[in-house]
Amino acid sequence: MTEPDVTTIINHPAVVSAYKTLTNHTYTYLKPKEQRLLHKAFNYGAQAHIKQFRKSGEPYITHPITVASILAELNLDIDTLCAAILHDTIEDTETSEKDIKREFNKTVAYLVQAVTKLDKFKFRNLQEAQAESFVKMLFAMAEDVRVIIIKLADRLHNMRTISAMSESSRKRIAKETLEVFTPIAQRLGLKKIQNEMQDLAFIALHPNTAHELSNKVDELSGYRKEAIEKIKRKIVKALLHSNLSAQVDGRQKSLYSIYSKLKRKSLTFDQIHDVFGIRVIVKTVQDCYIALGVIHGLYAPREKSFKDYVAVPKSNGYQSIHTLVTGPFGLAIEIQIRTVDMDKVCESGVAAHWLYKHDDPRSNSRLSLA
């Protein structure tokens, strides 16, 4: 069999598609010089992994490129993106830390080497992953929080492609993802990564239950879609009348979050009121409370259903006001109110602090734990 050349690998449809997705995420915030460095990492990684292929048959480089894409959605800096593309080179190829330092810089080399070391660290169970001493030890090992974020993105992509594995491998990896990786994502406030990993693991571990629950959500969506849209329009109109500019969107609770709530509180599906809800995003903290007053003027709040995480944030930095109101036809609707900055932290957690941070020479990549 003829050994593939790097041009063939780079022009493979799956590689072209993966790299295009990555650059679509980065062109809005990376400088031209950084885009060129990213392309260099792409070529370097493709050459390093030239003989490797995934179980799906695609060139292996599609995996690290997609890991970088996941991080680019969080607007992480160029060093992190390059390290993501190269994260398996030291462990799986003849590439050394010195090689990466010479071709890129010491930060990229450090991140790749640290991810390699972290891969050798074995997690055991949910209790250990959530233990404060364990988390501090994990973060002390990594030193730089970006190492852990790269590892989480790596696991997320492995979960997306888990169907190529045997059933026993799928169950083992899905269980480890739920028990170890999602609690870490939660601690870092990486809500988007956490939710997707949980849903994918849930589907892998309990496919029948997940399918049944998904059908119920779809059915409920048909009933409530019109009501949600009506409430959104009414809120937008009332906020504008109060001279308040806001983004008002519908939101859906993740499948695993619904499943967990059903089990944790011994509820039936009909008893869960926050499967669908509305999110209101405003400019300032003061606007949050003004919007709350406007919304309560439209729809009566339900007793003991108000939570103010703006005044008292969660331990992972999450901030938002939650209120459960009675909408048309007695429909219970949860409304979340937060600022634009709070929304960024909610979706990206600790990674939100990296947005454009590479432009600031005073920025410090070390993570300190209180």
The average pLDDT is 87
N-end to C-end Cα span: 56 Å
Instruction: Give, in order, the helices and strands.
Output: HHHHHHHHHHHHHHEHEHEEEH
* Structural class by secondary-structure content: alpha+beta
Shape: globular
Task: Give me the CATH architecture of the largest domain, please.
Answer: Orthogonal Bundle
Evaluate the radius of gyration: 22 Å
Low-confidence regions: 356-370
The largest sheet, given as strand count, sense and whether it forms a barrel, is: 5 strands, mixed
CATH superfamily heading of the largest domain? Hypothetical protein af1432
Annotation, overall tally of beta strands: 5
Helix content: 55-70%
Biggest sheet strand order reads: 1-2-5-4-3
CATH names the topology of the largest domain as Hypothetical protein af1432
Residues in β-strands, percent: 5-15%
Give the class-level CATH name of the largest domain: Mainly Alpha
Kindly list the characteristics that best describe this protein.
Beta Polymerase, domain 2, disordered C terminus, alpha+beta
